[in-house]
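TA notes, week 10

Several of you asked for a full example with nothing omitted. So below is the full record: structure tokens for the whole chain, then the designed sequence directly under it. When grading your own attempts, check the secondary structure regions first.
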């Protein structure tokens, strides 16, 4: 794997760290490909039952590395198709939960990347810059125009796309109040708070969590009748797991369950 992405596994949690701290972890092609490799590795390693995504240094990610892009021969559309779109799909379809610890600023495609995660944790030092795209005459991308309105509503999303720039950032507290982040904590507790959630998720019924992702994200594109049928279909899969049996047995025997992820 590239040096610009760090990948470690401990206690069932794969930690993926964006690692170009001197550039606010701006995304270059090497890093984007490294990220895909890391998520692929997390998907196929059975010992990994949750993923923690974060950035090295004082910022999470400042989006596309603009110095690289000015020298690229690809069109912006092709760069998105080739490097970004598959990554966001990969995160959303990963059958394991992804927790994002937003350390510092998340701008442009870096902000979009946080939306690919299932849960976001921020501190009073975190900030989001969804207006970084319009600030350079572009449209929000990497799934942001689809995912952000789903999470916080179209009105607030539009405000961020239009008025939220490097000088007018969305702070962690407001992001929490708007429902963009799931937990807000002190800056020095950010990593531990996110890691605790990831560790807790790693002891839970992994298949049921993966299937819940499939149902929630898939059902956003379905009507109620299809969504109900899809829930029934996916519930049959969950019901065949060891963890379902263990969960029911533990409840009936009045003891804590031990889930093995299968
Ligand atoms: C950077 C960057 C950066 C390079 C900070 N690149 N160096 C997809 C496909 C294809 C093409 C286009 O786009 C996309 C999607 C996108 O992501 S578009 C949006 C791209 N991102 C941006 O426009 C954000 C640009 N950065 C900023 O607005 C600010 O740097 C933020 C708000 C992130 C942080 O502001 P400050 O805390 O004031 O830091 P700074 O601006 O002084 O930056 C620190 C260093 O990081 C600086 O380098 P230097 O050598 O002067 O210390 C910046 O040039 C560098 N840097 N972002 N995206």
């Amino acid at each position: 794997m590239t040096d610009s992405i760090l990948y470690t596994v401990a206690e069932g949690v794969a930690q993926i760290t964006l690692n170009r701290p001197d550039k606010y972890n701006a995304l270059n092609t090497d890093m984007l490909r490294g990220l895909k490799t890391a998520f692929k590795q997390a998907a196929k390693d059975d010992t990994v039952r949750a993923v923690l995504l974060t950035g090295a240094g004082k910022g999470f990610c400042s989006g596309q590395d603009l110095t690289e892009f000015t020298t690229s021969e690809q069109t912006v559309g092709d760069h998105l198709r080739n490097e970004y779109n598959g990554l966001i799909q990969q995160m959303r379809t990963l059958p394991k939960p992804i927790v994002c610890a937003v350390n510092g600023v998340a701008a442009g495609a870096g902000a979009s990347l946080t939306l690919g995660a299932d849960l976001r944790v921020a501190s009073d030092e975190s900030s989001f810059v969804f207006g970084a795209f319009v600030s350079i005459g572009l449209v929000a991308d990497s799934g942001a125009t689809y995912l952000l309105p789903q999470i916080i509503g179209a009105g607030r999303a539009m405000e961020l796309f239009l008025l939220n720039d490097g000088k007018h950032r969305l702070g962690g507290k407001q992001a929490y109040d708007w429902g963009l982040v799931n937990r807000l904590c002190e800056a020095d507790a950010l990593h531990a708070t996110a890691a605790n959630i990831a560790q807790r998720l790693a002891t839970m019924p992994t298949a049921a969590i993966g299937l819940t992702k499939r149902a929630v994200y898939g059902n956003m594109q379905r009507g109620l009748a299809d969504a109900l049928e899809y829930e029934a279909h996916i519930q049959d899969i969950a019901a065949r797991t060891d963890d379902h049996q263990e969960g029911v047995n533990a409840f009936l025997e009045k003891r804590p369950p031990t889930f093995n992820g299968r």
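The longest strand covers residues 5-10. Use that as a sanity check on your answer.
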